[in-house]
Structures are given as structure tokens and as C-alpha cells.
Amino acid sequence: MEVLQFSALVMFALLTMELAVLLPHRVVRDPVQNRSRWLMAIGVMVLALQFLIQYIFGFRSKGVTQAVMVNLLFFVPCSSLFSLALLNLQQQGRLMWQQWLVALVATLSVWVIIVLTTLFDGVPLLADSEMLLWAEYASGIVYALMQGYYSYHLIVNFRKSQRALDNYYGYSTRSLLRWMRRVMLVMTLLALGVPFLIFISGWLLKIYSLVVFLVIFYLVTMFSFYCVSSDASKVREAEETQIEEDTSALSMSESDRKILDRKVNKWIDAGGYLQSGLTIQKVADEIVVPRYQLAIWLKTTEWELFNPWLTYLRIERAKQLLVEHPDWTNDAVAHHCGFSSRNYFQVLFKKSTGMTPAQYVEKARSES
What we know:
Helices cover 79% and strands 0% of the residues. With 368 residues, the protein is an all-alpha fold. The longest helix has 37 residues, at 130-166.
């Protein structure tokens, strides 16, 4: 166990250095990413301090209860800092005071429960006791409730971000936030299991600890990649557009809708939707209407969002091409219809029709 603790200590020290020193200067200049970076760095530092204490004093060898006590005292603030870092990133720096308060209340509650128990328990600190055991159970429940609160807000914000991406880009953007979805899921599962898993030992403890290490390593690494890539700016652009549309009090009259119907149909007839790399802003510019007006128009359709609407148009055109040109390859059809790749086209086509392109062609032949 000492080897695992020392390895964790070294890994978290390196991750702290990565966040505090090695990230490029452009991350430092971005106030949102910079705050998330420091929240995450402090969280990793707290976790490194926990493993340093465990390694120096060997609490796990002296008793499971003592090791659990140290874990809870440090991991509750660490986990809250990780959650706040993600929320700060999702909310573009607009953290609510309630989100800070939950972290403070949960951390203080756990510290008060454990510290008061050790003071009034009447047994030595390094001795197991039933009162300390129940105090740690109570602290584990506090931690699970805290993480449950953060997970709820993380999921709500994640869905808003994905909706904003679907309403701005005309191609798949699921990969931009896939890392965040994975981290949220595992963090939630780990937190919910804390009240039941904190007293395990042996191989189960090593597996659980290894999962925690890997999740934190993945979180820090993917956060760093996200910040230095163009993904963050793409998400920010879509979210800022969504905020503008949500705060707009304008609505669309029936006459305005008919005018926009004609403009959109004219753009479709000209094959504008077959261009690759489309965004809602580019389409709005091409049909000469404000972007928010096009977004409002989309909300009146069965698709509601830009990406599903554009995908529908492209799939319908692909159906026509497959029937008219059965000798065309999927690559050719995908390229002609504006899809970014053959694989992406095939996935969307099967999702839409329930058939592969080849099966669709075969069915069209049998019906003709």
C-alpha cells in the first residue's frame, strides 16, 4: 500500500506542476480557463498533501478508520474544487454564490464532525472507536450529498452546452465535451459509493484507489488539452450565441415567418445546405437575416435546432443520390452532401433510416 501511496504522491505533484507551470500563457490570459486551472491545481495539491500525510504516518497500517479519517478530511475539499473548476468552465466564469457555499458547508461539516468526535470520543487518536466509525459514515454521506448537488448542476450545464453546440454548428461536435461527460459520470459514481466503500481493504481498495488516480489524471490531462486546443473557443462561441438568443425578447410574427420561409427555401433550392463546415451564423449571413431570427424560426420547426435540421436536409439529399447514382461510393455521397467523413455519414444515415446506404439502395431497387 505504501508503494501505491508514494506513486500517487509523485503523480499528483507532477499534475500540480502541469497545471500551475506548464500550461501555455494563452490559458493564463483567459480568465475563465485560468480560474478553473487554479481551482483544479489547488485540488490536486490538497490530494497530494493527503497522500503525503498517509505515507509519512502510515495510517493505513495502523488502522482503516484512521486512514478513512484523513481521506475524508482532504478529499471532500479536493472533490469540491474539481467540481467548481468544471462548473466555472461550463458557466464561463459565472459561478453562483450557492455553489461556493455548498463546498464551504460540506468541508466545514466534515471537519467539525470528525474533529469534534476525536476530541470527545475519549480514546487516543490512533485508536479505532465506534463513535469515530459512525462519524466517518456521516461524513461520507455529507460528501455524497455534496457531489450529488454538483453532479446535478454539471449535468444541467452540460446539456445546455451540447444544445448550444447543436444549434450553432452543422456538423458533429459531440467529441468536444466527451471528456467532460466521462469525468462527470465517474465522479458521481465514485461519490455515491463513498459511504459504502471507504472501509474496504485489500485488492478492492487498490482497485478503487487506482480508479480514483486514473480519473484525476484523465481530468487534468483532458482539461489541459481542451484549453490549448480550439475546442474551448468553439464551445464558447456557441454558448455566447445561445445566451444572446435566450436573452432576446424578440419574437417572430406570421408575416416575418413566411418571408423567412421563402428565403430558406430559396437557399435550400440553391444547394446551400450541401456546403461543409456550416454554422448557423454563416447560413444567416447567406440568406441575409439576423442569426437570432433564424434561430427563432428553427424553434418553430420540428427539428428546433440547427444541426438536426441540416442533417435532415443532407440525409434526404443523400437518399436521392443513392437512388439516382447507385454506382457512387459512400465517400462520394458524403462529400457531395457536406458530411465531414464517410463514417459520420454512415452513422447518421443508419440512425435516420434504420438501414445502411447499401441496404437502402437494395430496398429501392426491389421496390422499383
